[in-house]
Specification:
Elements (H helix, E strand, L loop, with lengths): L2 H23 L7 E6 L6 E8 L2 E9 L7 H21 L4 E7 L2 E7 L12 E5 L6 H8 L19 E3 L8
Antiparallel strand pairs: 1-2, 2-3, 4-5, 4-7, 5-6
Length: 172
């Protein structure tokens, strides 16, 4: 092996070792967000727990209101939604919640970007509402204040509501 090849080999090995060290020691954001379903109140709620500077803080994201769900369905939908949203936060796969009609069913789903609906191949349906429910209105009423827009969407000007899963105050 000549001198040039040996320098290239040593340089490449150094870069690979440094990359591995950086990858292992880099903090992960996924561990900072924990999504759970709290059933200790009158209606189940999806709660986000954020750990910032070692201090956890809870934010209510979705409230499974009795007008949209039976008691049993509310708990089951809350638990399934919390599990799905944990995956969304861990993978960064979806950035918005939206409501839509899918196969004549009112649904709420997680999507990658504004402009796509629950029928998009990358959309993740979180829960199904009653067919008579207005999905956008239901989503707006279910959202916690930290995730809710100032006013509900106007059905005449906007076909779908999009709620950011990481509001502007998001700490990371």
């Amino acid at each position: 092996m000549n001198k040039w090849q040996s320098w290239v080999t040593m340089g490449t090995a150094s870069i690979l070792v440094m990359s591995a060290i950086v990858a292992v020691s880099a903090p992960t954001r996924a561990n900072s967000v924990q999504v759970s379903c709290k059933t200790s109140t009158s209606s189940p709620k999806v709660i986000l727990s954020l750990a910032k500077d070692g201090t956890p803080k809870d934010y209510m994201m979705l409230n499974f209101l009795p007008k949209y769900f039976s008691d049993v369905n509310a708990v089951q939908n809350c638990q399934n939604t919390a599990k799905s949203l944990q995956t969304v936060y861990d993978t960064g796969s979806s950035k918005y919640l939206t409501a839509d009609k899918l196969n004549d069913q009112a649904v709420v789903c997680a999507v990658e970007r504004r402009g796509i609906g629950c029928n998009h191949y990358s959309a993740k349906v979180l829960f199904i509402l009653k067919p008579v429910d207005n999905p956008s209105q239901a989503l707006y009423e279910m959202l916690g204040s930290d995730f809710k827009q100032a006013q509900p969407s106007d059905a005449r000007t906007l076909s779908r509501t999009y709620t950011d899963t990481k509001p502007t105050w998001w700490p990371f």
